[in-house]
Design goal:
With 539 residues, this protein is of the alpha/beta class. The protein is built from 21 helices and eleven strands. It folds into three domains: 223 residues, 3-Layer(aba) Sandwich (Rossmann fold), CATH 3.40.50.10490; 193 residues, Rossmann fold; 32 residues. Strands 1-2-11-10-8-9 form a six-stranded mixed beta sheet, with helices on both faces. It has a five-stranded parallel beta sheet with strand order 4-3-5-6-7, with helices on both faces. Helix 17 packs across helix 18. The N and C termini lie far apart (51 Å). The structure holds 6-O-phosphono-beta-D-fructofuranose.
């Protein structure tokens, strides 16, 4: 069983955590006017305020010491080189290359391949936008349907929604992921096969859900009277598995490559992001890339003290390994970032939901927390009760766009709500204030005294603020790269491989076995599964 690395530093952090657990965050801010400045970082147009945390100066300094001992900032260079960082699959990890503005030394060929692929991506987008690429019957393409799941869905889906105000007129982009036919049925509702273009996104083209949906979409097009030879007008593909794409009947010219040095959850910057480019146009897609590259350069060059991804990671390690938090919430106060928590779930939990270290030793310490969240203000009417009065320590990343506040009363109310939630989590309301509040509402003193304990808000609940002036392709790209690099940093400190996902294999294998048993063959698994199978009707 592997203990938390760097035991001397870990021991200091454990002792410091005992102190910081008791500290009053509001008092830290009142006593030290420089705290907001010192516990803040700026990068690529974003500002991180981490002053509202159960974290005193000595703990912050010791976390930086941990990062130094872990060699995180030395290791970051591997993200910009052909080092096989993903050692269990023997692969480099080069999603930064997809947005690089120049070829890193030794990666000139890969850089050229990316540029070629992006040029082909842009040609297709322009042809569809210009009406030069049409459906089999000569109709203009009106709808793009992305068929993919996990990293072949969550990133593009989230970005397309986030950048809705940048959509090119006349093009609608939809997403289908689930093997449940109700998903594709809903996506295709109201669409005309003659003006619909599908993108089959699958790094492996062996993913059951995507293959099933691709076949169903193909049949939907054929059922509309479009002949086999017309399918090329209605299907594109993105995959490392070019042979499987061709076998599906998609011509080479309609297939864009992917490479094994791009992890699925890190792939929206590649041709997996084709649906994004169809939605917002190639120039805006390149702004998204530029924002991510700006955050890459910040991550690559900033000293530890001023390194935004590193601080997000050190806060995660602090709460998970020393403060006992097993959950982490991301709450964007921006409706268009509604899919961001789901995207970050795969990024963080599929990367760092591990329990074995680089050397194959079982871990004696925790790794990735449960990442969850929803947009504000909606969360205030569902889970904020728990955040304010529950018994769970749940650090929150609030994402705000203050620059939008002046645009309308609604945006001003959105910002005011976000700021009030952070403040309420920190300040709370004690028994005396609760009683005064009740009396202020007309309760008699006896009833107010009875009820007051139910109104107490403990407060002292930690949160960070990530803010920028506007939600643009550039600022979104920087935000997503920020969380990618945070994930990398935490993985290095936990000494795990953030870039494989062996944990998803067993379920897939068992799924195939159980699917085969649905034909009533009577194969037995275990009493619970057998009981469930017994309920399956064999028509
Ligand atoms: O969940 C496992 C996984 O392999 C993810 O890592 C990946 O993003 C998803 O399935 C889809 O894989 P593919 O793009 O190969 O269809």
């Amino acid at each position: 069983m592997a203990h938390f690395p760097h035991p001397a530093i870990a021991g200091k952090l454990e002792a410091l955590a005992e102190q910081d657990r008791q500290v009053a965050i509001a008092s830290l801010l009142e006593q030290d006017p420089t705290r907001v400045e010192r516990f803040g970082v700026e990068a690529a147009g974003w500002r991180l305020d981490f002053s509202r945390h159960l974290l005193q100066d000595e703990s912050a300094a010791t976390l930086l010491e941990l990062a130094g001992a872990a060699g995180v900032l030395e290791d970051r260079n591997a993200l910009f080189s052909a080092t096989p960082l993903n050692h269990t699959e023997g692969r480099a990890v080069l999603h930064t290359l997809l947005r690089a503005q120049e070829a890193p030394p030794g990666l000139e060929q890969e850089y050229a391949d990316v540029a070629d692929c992006r040029a082909r991506m842009g040609e297709w987008v322009q042809r569809v936008h210009d009406g030069r690429h049409m459906g089999h019957g000569g109709e203009r393409i009106k709808t793009i349907v992305n068929i993919g799941i996990g990293g072949s869905d969550l990133g593009p889906r989230m970005v397309v929604e986030a950048l809705r105000s940048y959509w090119v007129p006349g093009i609608d982009v939809r997403f289908c992921a689930n093997v449940d036919p109700d998903d594709l049925d809903a996506v295709l509702t109201g669409l005309d096969p003659h003006s619909t273009l599908f993108i089959i996104c699958s790094k492996t083209l062996r993913t059951e859900e995507t293959l099933y949906n691709a076949r169903a979409a193909r049949q939907w097009v054929l059922d509309a009277g479009i002949p086999e030879e017309g399918l090329a007008q209605h299907f594109l593909a993105v995959s490392t598995n070019l042979e499987a794409a061709r076998d599906f009947g998609i011509p080479e010219a309609n297939i864009l490559p992917l490479w094994d040095w791009v992890g699925g959850r890190y792939s929206l910057w590649s041709a997996i992001g084709w649906s994004i480019a169809f939605a917002i146009g190639m120039p805006r897609f390149e702004e998204l890339l530029a924002g991510a590259d700006a955050m890459d350069q910040h991550f690559r060059n900033a000293q530890a003290r001023d390194n935004m991804p590193l601080w997000l990671s050190l806060l995660e390690v602090w709460y998970v390994n020393f403060m006992g938090a097993r959950v982490h919430a991301v709450i964007p106060y921006q409706q268009r970032l509604a899919y961001l928590p789901a995207f970050l779930q795969q990024l963080s939990m599929e990367s760092n939901g591990k329990s074995v270290n680089h050397r194959g030793q079982r871990l004696g310490y925790d790794t990735a927390p449960i990442l969850w969240g929803d947009v504000g203000t909606n969360g205030q009417h569902s889970f904020h009760q728990l955040l304010h009065q529950g018994t769970v320590l749940c650090p929150v990343d609030f994402i705000l766009i203050p620059g939008a506040a002046g645009a309308s009363e609604g945006k001003s109310r959105l910002l005011a709500n976000g700021l009030s939630q952070m403040r309420a989590l920190m300040v709370g309301r004690d028994l005396e204030a609760s009683q005064r509040s009740l009396e202020g509402r007309g309760a008699d003193p006896v009833r107010a005294a009875e009820l007051a304990p139910h109104l107490v808000i403990p407060g002292n609940r930690p949160s960070s603020t990530l803010s920028c002036d506007a939600l643009t392709p550039y600022s979104l790209g920087a935000l997503l790269a920020l969380y990618e690099h945070k994930t990398f940093c935490s993985g290095r400190i936990w000494q795990i491989n953030s870039f494989d996902q062996w944990g998803v294999e067993l379920g897939k294998e068992m799924g195939a076995e159980i699917f085969a048993a649905l034909d009533g063959s009577g194969q037995s698994f275990d009493p619970s599964t057998d009981a469930a199978l017994a309920g399956v009707r064999h028509d």
